Amino acid sequence: METHKSGQYFVIGKPIAHSLSPLIHNQALKELGLEGTYSAREVAVEELADFFAEFRSAHHAGCNITLPLKVAALSLVDEASQRAQRLGAINTLYWREGCLWGENTDVIGFRAPLEGKNFAHALILGAGGVSRAAICALQEMQVKKITITNRSPEKAQALAEEFGIGCSPWEDRSGLEADLVINATSLGMKGEREDMTPFSSFRGTGLAYDIVYTPEKTRFLREAEAAGWQTQSGVAMFVEQARASFRLWTGLEMPKESAYTVVRTALAARS
Q: Which helix (H) or strand (E) holds 132?
């Protein structure tokens, strides 16, 4: 793996102005005394091939990829990790032995706060791109029972068949017994859906994991906490996927404490 202690890094997507990635990566580069710079660039799907040509020509140091480009980008790299191939999407570009590789650090980010924990049954609410990363992470952790449910049943069924997991009707979700419940929907996100939650039936004990991180404490997490459950916000997934990308590019560890601090400070300023 080629590591870069300086150079130009990017995050691309559309829209991209809201991204916190430049903040967290530039903080790390500065703290570690590295000369690289990290910037956001708006790139549409139809502009992606041109961006890759520029990236290759300039041999830029690294890049993060966000919506709506993660799937299309997979076909433009030289090689991709088995994880990325299985997911059919990448969020990180890095160089390895002269080849441009694609990785999906969303899986690593999702797993990070769950390390050392064991679950009998994971319930995933939602069937979008984040759900794919969650399923892959849970299967890597060897969670034996995984069930997905979604308001649009066709999407949940398609993912269930692709990954070999269970599927349940959306209207039956409250009756399911699970010790890990994951909100992979946008319900609870800051804005018009902030007062909404996809799940309220927290029985027994378990962990409620919300992919949403604006706000950090959603209604979903507040109700889980009131029921005696442990909770995990989406801040950890965001920070840890960034730390995994940084590791691929530089071979160094992004300072953990300051990474969380800079993200939480930025989120507080936006609230």
A: helix 129-140
